[in-house]
């Protein structure tokens, strides 16, 4: 053995069926952990890629925010009197404008909250 050389690291143990089993369990555990880390990393990368493709990322219920905004503007136009003298349309009530744009109520549902929200007593 040289004085300047690092000592060799050798592990010696009695090789029995039990030590082989323990070693195999340890290596299997390490492999499962490694595979889990890889899987999480792949899922995160895939989610990032999918997120970048979304054109309208958030929706609540059946209509997007943009559709609800357009519907709201149309309701305002229906319920406010027109300044144009040639159009003799009379404004309708806010409730009638809401029903004409959004449709009639369905029993048991809360409007604009999707199909999962229901009234509970």
Summarize the SSE layout with pairings.
Elements: H1 17-53, E1 59-60, E2 63-64, H2 65-79, H3 94-102
Antiparallel strand pairs: 1-2
Helix pairs in contact: 2-3
Describe this structure in a few short sentences.
Residues 44-63 are annotated as: Disordered. This protein is mainly α and 121 residues long. The protein is 50% helix and 3% strand.
Please describe what this structure looks like.
The termini are far apart. This protein has a two-stranded antiparallel sheet with strand order 1-2. The relative contact order is 0.07. The longest helix has about 35 residues, at about 15-55. With about 120 residues, the protein is mainly α. The mean pLDDT is about 75. The chain has 2 domains: about 15-55; about 60-85 and about 90-120, no CATH class. The protein has helices at about 15-55, 65-80, 95-100; strands at about 60, 65. It has 3 helices and 2 strands; from the N terminus they run αββαα.
Helicity, in percent? 40-55%
Average pLDDT number = 77
Low-confidence stretches: none
Distance between the termini: 85 Å
Count of distinct structural domains: 2
SSE run = HEEHH
Please give the number of β-strands: 2
Strand content: under 5%
Number of helices: 3
The largest pleated sheet is described as:
2 strands, antiparallel
Radius of gyration: 34 Å
Oligomer, anyone?
A: single chain
Structural shape: rod-shaped
The class by helix and strand makeup works out as mainly alpha
List the strand order in the largest sheet: 1-2
